[in-house]
Amino acid sequence: MPIFNEHTPVNPQGRLAGKVAFITGAGSVGDGWGNGRATALRFAQEGAVVWGVDINQEALPNTADLIARAGGLFHAGYCNVMEAPSVAASILECQQKLGRIDILVNNVGGSAKGGPVDMDESVWDTQIDYNLKSVFLTCKHVLPIMQAQQGGSIVNIASTSGTRWTGAAQIAYASSKAGVIHFSKVLAVQYAHDNIRVNTVIPGQLHTPMVSVRLAAQRADGDVDALLKQRQARIPMPFMGDGRDTANAALFFASDESRFVTGADLVVDGGMTARCA
Prior knowledge:
InterPro entries: NAD(P)-bd_dom_sf, SDR_fam. Helices cover 44% and strands 14% of the residues.
């Protein structure tokens, strides 16, 4: 079956029919299939009502347009996931307007180059807030809602950088994403009796807009093709995945198909980490 795209219509009886999904980082830094944009569209195609937030409001209209053309339902909102008042207000607004939150996807994240010697302390602090504290804050405010509903699914997006060396020194990113993976496992056990499942998608080196817009400038002096060749050389499969592959993995964890799965990791990397095991 071909992977989904912008022409895949909404299925009103889909795998997420009747569910409300709160997705952070639902925009994209550029054209193409970012994790947030792809997940928002995929969930809408499967019948969910999507509440998508981003710190950059200009990044959301494209996501909204894709979902509208597919026949889905999308609400765009502002949220700075590093600030508790912003997170609390955004989650409360979603609950008040849509009545519930069944699914939380923590998609926000980004890397900064450097090891502990050359990385400025302020960069370290921001990376921890951006990649890890953001997950803490959203869970802090969503979990009571899910407890009251007697169930829910939280999907956290980590990175293979949180499990091993993946080709570049990015100590804060690697550490914070490793934290996301273990945070998810601890939370999964704590809230299992509340029928709240917590799982982690671990993408590898995908071809997302962030590669072209940000990473190429950091690591290949702006040469996108050179960076893509470097990344592809690490992947056993003959192609590089994109945000749609992350979205499909998140969909499994969000849906009732994974009703007996919690505290689990799903690696989406074309075999890269298996080769390096």
